[in-house]
Amino acid sequence: MIARAILVVAAALALTACDGSQPLIKPKAKEPGPFPAADRPVANIVSSRWSTEEARDRLDEAARVMDMADIRPGMTVADLGAGEGYYTTRLAARVGKDGRVLAEDIVPAVRDALAERVARERLENVSVRLGRPADARLPAASFDRIFMVHMYHEIAQPYEFLWRLRPALRAGGLVVVVDADRSTRNHGTPPALLRCEFAAVGYAQVSFREMPSAGGYFATFRAAGERPEPAEIRACRMETQD
Questions:
Q1: Mean pLDDT, range 56-62, rounded to an integer
Q2: 16: pLDDT strictly greater than 50
């Protein structure tokens, strides 16, 4: 009798699961449509550094950039294209034990070397991960600041990259860009092109400063208005690039 009762209950549960009220197979999230191609050359990744850490510290680069970005204790910051960790280690010290730093690179060997450095220096508030060329894969509404230092010109699909990046910003969050004022072919990004590409994906420029000590300029952007659909994005057309 007990065995028969168990069978009856099991059958009832099976019928309930198949009554149509709950889908047995969850639909796969719809991927966005195609993004426009960038109308500019893309610089090759030639090195994980653009200068030595000692030379950069002599110019007080990181401290000045962090001051202008208003990095404070307790913040959560992403360092994209982190390389050997020049900014990662200094951001970790600035945000403190109550803050977090996510350091990311798309080159596995560079990511591994940075992870070793983080472990060696016992940076317990730092996580290291491998990113993708067109998608940083950052969790939504998680970051007060997203740093891109001397790497924006290496992004082959800037519209898709920025589109996927935008939801990761918290309210009031900023994307921080440090780059050189020269053509993307020559490892820089002209400021007008930078503003245009960010605006095309729904960002507004908050600040811009010339910064020779950091190799060019400092700029910040915030999310503004609705994020456009990929089909609505129009690529920026730059007439000349030296």
A1: 86
A2: no
